[in-house]
Amino acid sequence: MNNRERNLAILVGSLLFIVFGYQIVQGFVLSPMARKKTLIERKRQENRLMEEQISLLQEQEQTVTQWKDQSLPPDHQIASNRYQEWLLQMVSRAEFKRPNIAPERRTRNDPSNRLFSKHPFTIRANTSLKGLVTFLYEFYRTPLLHKITQINVLPDRRRSRSGGLNVMIRLEGVAIGDIPKRSILIDPDIENKEIATLAFTDFDSYQSIVDRKMFSPYQAPPPEREEAPPVTVDHSANYRLTFVGSRVLENREIPEAWLHSEPQDETLYLKDGEDFEIPGFRAKVVRIGKREITLKMESGTRLLKLGKNLGELVSLEGDATTSSTPSNDESGQDEDGQDEDGQDEDGQP
Question: What range defines the domain where residue 11 resides?
Answer without folding.
Answer: 1-41
